[in-house]
Write a structure and sequence with these properties.
Layout: E1 29-30, E2 33-35, E3 41-44, E4 47-60, E5 68-77, E6 82-88, E7 94-96
Antiparallel strand pairs: 1-7, 2-3, 3-4, 4-5, 5-6, 6-7
Length: 98
Amino acid sequence: MTRIPGPTGGPRGTAGPGRTAPRPLNRPRPARVRSHRSGAPQRVDGRVIEIVRESWLVEDRWWTDRPVRRRYWETVSAKGANVVVFRDLQTGRWFTQR
């Protein structure tokens, strides 16, 4: 097996001397959400949601021991901020994601 060097000279995904390993991008963060009976978010971390632009369902890795089932919403807060939020349909927990 051939190792491809990363930008620090070591194998990709490792940190060089004095450096930290890269952190995952777009990591979900737990969120406090109040939702409508329909399931759509009304408040996310205290921010009032003005508009739900889009909603979609993600079902992936169903063939593994850790399948993913999430309902996503792309929303706009009352102050105009874009907020992407999802509910893990297996645990019922809410998360934000950039």
